[in-house]
User: Which sequence fits this backbone?
């Protein structure tokens, strides 16, 4: 019995490498799993969001440069908003041009942009609140900032769960293809 297990193990190890045909099928199926064609409602929603991001850029630009009384910290907060607006609009335009949404790359890029923006935004808001004379207004600002931070954390956790699920699906697909390849090779060896 021990000898049979050893022979089976050796056969499995010898056939572990996926064939080129299976590898190509696997890569194609992975690509189909990660790339989702953009539906019409999502397309129009993304187009609307691009316009919102561009409008946000204009509003932040006006706010940053039309008020001379702003301190450098407040001005940098508006400039951060300008940069975020343009970057997020760029991500959306790239996705729209491609005509598909990549569940791994696009989701991670968008989540990363939101998370980086929120960390910097919260930091700026905390420094601004600390420098305010009106402590009640400062506390209100911190509470409102905390609400946005919680939303960003939720967005980050949602993406982490989705990415974990994708990795699991990818690994299961790989195992499925490897088993099919091993089974085919063992059948050939048996005949």
Assistant:
């Amino acid at each position: 019995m021990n000898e049979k297990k050893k022979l089976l193990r050796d056969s499995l190890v010898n056939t572990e490498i996926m064939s080129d045909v299976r590898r190509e099928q696997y890569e194609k199926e992975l690509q189909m799993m990660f790339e989702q064609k953009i539906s019409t409602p999502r397309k129009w929603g993304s187009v609307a969001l691009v316009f919102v991001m561009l409008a946000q850029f204009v509003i932040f630009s006006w706010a940053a440069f039309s008020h001379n009384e702003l301190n450098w910290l407040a001005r940098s907060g508006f400039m951060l908003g300008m940069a975020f607006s343009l970057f997020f609009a760029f991500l959306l335009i790239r996705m729209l041009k491609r005509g598909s949404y990549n569940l791994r790359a696009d989701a991670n890029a968008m989540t990363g942009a939101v998370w980086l923006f929120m960390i910097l935004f919260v930091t700026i808001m905390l420094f601004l609140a600390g420098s305010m004379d009106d402590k009640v207004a400062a506390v209100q600002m911190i509470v409102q900032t905390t609400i946005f931070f919680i939303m960003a954390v939720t967005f980050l956790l949602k993406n982490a769960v989705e990415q974990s699920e994708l990795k699991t699906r990818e690994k299961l697909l790989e195992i499925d293809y490897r088993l099919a390849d091993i089974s085919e090779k063992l059948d050939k060896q048996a005949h």
